[in-house]
Amino acid sequence: MIHLFQPQTGDEELAAVAEVFADKWLGHGPRTKAFEAEFAAHIGVDPEHMIFLNSGTAALFLALECLGLEEGDEVVLPSLSFLAAANAVLAVGARPVFCDVDPRTLNPDAAHIEAALTDRTKAVVVLHYGGYPGDIEAVAALCRDRGIPLVEDAACSVGSRVNGKAVGGFGDFAMWSFDAMKVLVTGDGGMLYVRDRELAARARRLAYHGLVQSSGIGHAKVSHRWWELEVPEIGRRVIGNDMTAAIGRVQLRRLPEFVARRREIVELYDRELAGAEGILPPPPLPAGHESTYYFYWVQFEEEIRDEIASELLAADIYTTFRYAPLHKVAAYRSEGRPLPSSDHAAGRTLCLPLHPGLSDDDVRTVAATLRKAVEACR
């Protein structure tokens, strides 16, 4: 089976975990802090504003919680997003309001966001689809002008940049995912960036039960009766740990090689599918944009998309469509506002296998099988 995603881990990651075992400190500790600092340097921000958590989903929930949203508040986000974003909005009592996207890039531009804003809009969550940054500069400018906090869902965009600036640095909050299917993996894990210093400190407290100071050994060295607790507000336990952080530090060092190989695969797909009738590849990146190349998506006539996916699966090639339109999900209480480009893309798009473990022959096999399936279906 040629898989859609596949983590790239090996001896370096094993050795890093072995060191954690040897030190006999598996939980939140020095390697967690080191990973936060190294990732902050990668993004170009102060490490005090970066928090390693147990998942990207936890980062989204924590970001929305820090915004202090209330019942009746609205959060605008693209319909073609992972469901965790909508779940995070509902979890704080707010209402998700879905906006449309460009039918080719599957990213919203500033006009899509603006069309969904109301006087009840209290935040915007924008996804960088497939690692492609999208119209983030204009979206960030719009949010600043309106005084609306911007949350960047950079789950798939750990190596993406616009004019040299890392994706995740444009908004007030940003999150990245390091689960087993992502570009940089820690098994499970995620990172949260909070621009405001006080909110960053609050997010760090909320990530560990709401404690102002933990009652551990470190606190014992600076405080009398270190076991006493100060809990100004209730939090959860969603912190990362030194085992996953150790893996993440190795993966971060290897990130340039991962992205370089992904770029090679995308370029090979482009060459192999060039001129293929009935197959529309991803649009080229705008000048100044750098992608992590998480997805390679192709589009067809709606009548044949599902049949093509079945033909590829029968040939042991796994494909899928990410992400199903959330405005069609009853749980999110969408008011039925028409999102024609989202619907258009959702019926025509398929994500092909893309990970550094693919050989050139694998890519050629996927492309050749796809071309044959499209010819047969058309």
UniProtKB/TrEMBL annotation:
Q: Which cofactor does it need?
A: pyridoxal 5'-phosphate
Q: Which UniProt keywords apply?
A: Aminotransferase, Pyridoxal phosphate, Transferase
**CDD domains named in the record:** AHBA_syn (cd00616)
InterPro entries named in the record:
DegT/StrS_aminotransferase, PyrdxlP-dep_Trfase, PyrdxlP-dep_Trfase_major, PyrdxlP-dep_Trfase_small
What would be one Pfam family of this protein? DegT_DnrJ_EryC1
For this UniProt entry, the molecular function terms from Gene Ontology, in alphabetical order, are:
transaminase activity
Record's family? Answer: Belongs to the DegT/DnrJ/EryC1 family. L-glutamine:2-deoxy-scyllo-inosose/scyllo-inosose aminotransferase subfamily.
Q: What is this protein called?
A: DegT/DnrJ/EryC1/StrS family aminotransferase
